[in-house]
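Justification of computing resources. Each target in the renewal requires a structure prediction run like the one illustrated here; the chain below, 503 residues long, is used simply to show the kind of job we budget for.
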Amino acid sequence: MAVTPILQMKDISRRFGQFYALKDVNLTVYAGEVHALMGENGAGKSTLMKILAGAYTATSGEILIDGKPHAIKGPKEALAAGITLIYQEINLAPNLTVAENIFLGSEIHRGGLVKRKQMALEAQKVIDRLGAQFSATDLVMKLSIAEQQQVEIARALHRNSRILVMDEPTAALSSRETEQLFALIKRLRSEGMAIIYISHRMAEVYELSDRVSVLRDGEYVGSLTRENLSATELVRMMVGRPLSDLFNKEAAQISNQPRLTIEGLTDGKKIHPCDLMVRAGEIVGLAGLVGAGRSELAQLIFGVRKHSAGRILIDDKPVKIGSPRDAIALGIGFLTENRKEQGLFLDLAAHENIVMATIERDSHYGMLDRRKGQIISREAIDSLNIRVPHAQVRAGGLSGGNQQKLLVSRWIAIGPRILLLDEPTRGVDVGAKSEIYRMMNQMAQQGVAILMISSELPEIVGMSDRVYVMREGAIAGELQGDITQEKIMTLATGVALSQPTPV
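Resulting structure tokens:
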């Protein structure tokens, strides 16, 4: 006898104006399984789950729970159906206790008074079931991110949720915290809970999932069972091309003359005197362990940090860079590693974010050239395939990959001569990575000098013409020709990774 799925989403579509975020998407989930939902940023994963949780309503399609249609018109209907969505951003009241958060909206009252002691006792039972180390009476603001996630899971258990959706739950967790979360997920699965797990991290999907469903461009591509999982097939399903095409480094016409040179550049503190050079048309990697000083060196070049000694040359001519404004005027763009706090204006429109670095250049007598700005933003959105319904959509509402491409497009808009890219593909999926790599190749073909900082060694090896490696605030060495991950790590750590066997 066939087992009835706990959840079926049939032919789900969601339209924003004329833009389809989802089109006829199907998803089937069974009790007691971890079902991974994958796809590049902007593929529609979060939109589909928000429809399931009642945050959005579908334009068309139906949702079945245990084979019976359910009209989920809001969060209350979703909770009543046993569905809980744990967002990537923690959704708790930090100034309340753990128990108060677990019971939020369903407090125990008697005689007009909230029975906090009873709530704490019942909440503690759920916390103990999870094996959590905090107490029901602890304030949420004093808990770690991992513990706050456990509070959200405890709230789901208290509500007798049968379907738990987790959206990028390990984004802010350490390795140890991730291991603890995985152990908890496996235990919940063994107890019969259905878990929908959204992630772009292949290793997590391999470890946890029983099945994987893939969305691409708002449409359902297909599903794979655990025994059929392969990185090559998943990437092909997500982006429509094989893994071998990801980097696709193209040979550019590299100039013999340096475009960017730094000589003895230092801040007198963390960064010791550094020398490096990038030619026009060249992609140079800057590698090293976390804390080696890579980002700080890029900030010295861009004028975010003040240098105490040394000099910067562009086309062999010394220049003075005392601020980012000076750097931009010289044709230098800087993609920060922290897009949300240091890069994007989340409350402004996508269009406004794109033209932010060209406002001064394209203003006349204090008036913005809006038509030119609209042309720039439209071309940027098309060239980087930024998935937005229109250019006026708020940047903070976009997926991580689209936010990153939005920030990249800002620096393309200035027509740069030099690009400093700090972790250009951090926190984005394989599809967005491919688009960013394509942009880097195009810019190099146009003669732009690119200095790329990355903690991903395959990215450094796959995209770089040469590599500098930093260790403890200084340049430890330079690699060209046969660049390998082992050689990079040897310079980064100061220790050879493969020692000869003594005779």
